[in-house]
Automatic annotation (TrEMBL):
Gene3D superfamilies: 3.30.70.260, 3.40.50.1360. The active site is at 102 (proton acceptor). Homodimer. It catalyses: aldehydo-D-ribose 5-phosphate = D-ribulose 5-phosphate. It comes from Fictibacillus marinisediminis. It is an enzyme of class 5 (isomerase). Keywords: Isomerase. This is Ribose-5-phosphate isomerase A. One of its GO terms (biological process) is D-ribose metabolic process.
Amino acid sequence: MNEKQMAGGKAADYIEDGMTIGLGTGSTVYFMLQKLGKRVKEGLQIKGVSTSDSTTQLAKSLDIPLISINEIDQIDLTIDGADEVDAELNGIKGGGGALLYEKVVASISSKIIWIVDSAKLVESLGTFPLPVEVLPFGSHQVFRLFEKEGLQPSFRKKEDAYFITDSGHYVIDLKMESIKHPEKTASWLDGITGVVEHGLFLNMADLLIVGEAGGPAIIYRKK
Ligand SMILES: O=C[C@H](O)[C@H](O)[C@H](O)COP(=O)(O)O
């Protein structure tokens, strides 16, 4: 069993009957959804809130019942992947471009579990390029601002065209190497007009499940 499968499978065990579940996005969440689909077939009653078109498609193919986020005010548990996680359980997300919906879902979740393979653990965030979702209108001005700050921005592309998120925005990836003050960086990005969302997810995850050779490691966020 690979590490992603191990972490995804373990996380699905935390889902209880009657829960509303935030369904993250990505290749690790794929394995969680496979296991959840199995449990639903065996009679588990849940409602899933999807964070991307790809997760919606996968959940539907597995007969996992979905509910629109607009019909609820609170999610019991969200299970999502991450691109990098530090010891404080702060992370970078958005490698697959789903950061905006993932953050909206996270913001109304009572509990958040992240599932990762061991390569995602880092001492400090920033080796993974930080995704910033921007409005196409004015995006080149934002890009040049990042350039001036020395953040080596690049527009994310898909087959030579701009990568477009599920909500119709562009993504600019920033090479920050090491983010010394994640809170400061997050609030700086929050303050830039035209930035819709960024991939710094701080103080959000309650629990981290890491796939490891000897079995899944469970790490709680220090409160
Ligand atoms: O936009 C994508 C999401 O934030 C994913 O959860 C993240 O990129 C991790 O994905 P994966 O499990 O495929 O590495």
